[in-house]
Design a protein that fits this description.
- The chain folds into 2 domains: 168 residues, Rossmann fold; 81 residues, no CATH class.
- It has 10 helices and 10 strands.
- A 6-stranded mixed beta sheet has the order 6-7-8-3-9-10, with helices on both faces. The protein has a 4-stranded antiparallel beta sheet with strand order 2-1-4-5, covered by helices on one side.
- The radius of gyration is 19 Å and the shape is globular.
- 38% of the residues are buried.
- The C terminus is likely disordered.
Length: 261
Amino acid sequence: MSLLEVRGLAKRFGGLYAVADLDLDVHEGEIVSVIGPNGAGKTTFFNVITGIYGADGGDVIFDGHHLLGFKPSQITKLGIARTFQTVHLFPNMTVLENAMVGQHCRTRSGLVGTIFQLPSTRAEEGRVREKGREALAFFGTRLSGYRHDRPASSLSYANRRRLEIARAMATEPKLLLLDEPTAGMNPKETEELTHLIARLRSEKGFTIVVIEHDMRVVKGVSDRVVALDYGRKIAEGTYEEVANEPHVIEAYLGRRATESA
């Protein structure tokens, strides 16, 4: 069953299409990787799905909801969470507080409850804290123990990446969108995160779409791979099928190599 359906999606900037007539289905429980050269429209695709950008055409249906026109907060509440190419954390907040932020879309207490510390508000705060701890525990010692009370800025780069995923997990999503999660990591860290992405599906049950440049990661986690170039889908299939598709090889090694030379 399709959890996410993208139909004829289009997004223009200055008259040029960053995403053009894109069709894509993501089935519940799948891990789908989206690949393509720089400027292929991958992050724009995520930004349209999550309401950061409006669309110029097409439709996005998630779990039966037509998303175009929804605010990012509404889309998060429906069950889509994401990470970003560059780490987006609150550096002066603690590791636990950053994870707890993910629960904001699930809270109900208003200003009055917060000011007067009503029993319902205190109970909700306890639940939010527990959800934050639960998300961090998935990463073992990397984000547990004394690190809960340390500022996010004190973490290593790889652990900041992990914390961003933990915050996304704390929103209680059905669909995780991971935008280049291994960017800037060394080979050992990349291997660890590859296994972690697989665990997010096998242990937590998330459906996942990954934007990734490291083909070892793509090969290691993907049920299906979708390749984009200039905003258009040029291939879709297994890793082996897409990796050997002539249009994909040209996009990575042919025309683009000539343009950058």
